[in-house]
Amino acid sequence: MKLRILFITAVFLYMSVIPFAFSFELKENPSEFIRNNPDGNKYDFAKAFITSLEGIKSSVERSQNSQVVSPQDILDAKKISELVDYLTLDNVKWRVAKNMMKKYLIPDNGLMLKVAHVFIKMCDEQIFFNVEERKLLQQIQKALREKKIKDFNQQLFLREHKKLSEQRKESLKGLLESALLTCKVMVSTKQNIYGEFDSLGITSKERDRLIYKMDNFYGENYDGELRAGQSFLEGSVSVIKELLFDYSWHSIDE
After folding, report:
1. What is the CA 138 to chain-centroid distance, rounded?
2. What are phi and psi of 191, to 5 degrees?
3. Does pTM surpass 0.90?
4. By CB neighbour count within 10 A (0-12 exposed, 13-18 middle, 19+ buried), where does 25 fall?
5. How far is CA 72 from CA 68, 117, 158, 187, in A?
6. How many whole angstroms separate alpha carbon 102 and alpha carbon 214?
7. For each successive 10 residues of the chain (254 residues), what is the average pLDDT?
8. Residue 11: C-alpha distances to residues 109, 228, 235, 245 (Å)
9. Cβ of 150: how many Cβ atoms within 10 Å?
């Protein structure tokens, strides 16, 4: 089981075509792993990451399941106004999650730094897509307000809106990448008598707290192993849950 996470990481990221280059592996280059992932602050880091996932849950689900605005929606001033308001609130959530991970943009732990970079980049992309979508919707609002909706280029709008929706979903691959890296962060650099890494860098009580915190993500889509058909959020939660519930990984105080 100890190298299973690495196998899943390599296979899933390859299948998803995620641009991900991880230069050291637990087994093949332990000295690099130790150097880039020293023990300390791992519980706080994992807690912050899970809290960030909680904060953007509704936003990610909306991005993952977003539908293209229909021609009928373009004529619905109330619906367009609600979408504009939602995008504004949505960006508040993304900024809060981003700021929560900003404090880990430090060189003390190279893996934490990598996670923070990947996660923040994904947040920035989601914020950008929301701003661009809001601009498109505000064009409709202007046309409706000025009673020029007949002159509004609906086909161009629909093409641009669909393009943003696809880009937003593609960007969410960064969510899974950062979750997989977070699993590696949680592995302790403490080795057993055989030179293997078989512990998490958190105490048994801290582990229980993280498991309890994951209760906010419930349902079969969030349980079990990483598998085809899951959204990037569901897969991200699943890999962290699987690690925490696998007690062949000892807690650091055991």
Report:
1. 28
2. -105, 150
3. no
4. middle
5. 11, 40, 11, 52
6. 22
7. 43 38 53 90 96 90 68 84 91 95 90 96 96 94 89 89 90 94 94 91 97 86 77 91 93 91
8. 25, 12, 14, 22
9. 7
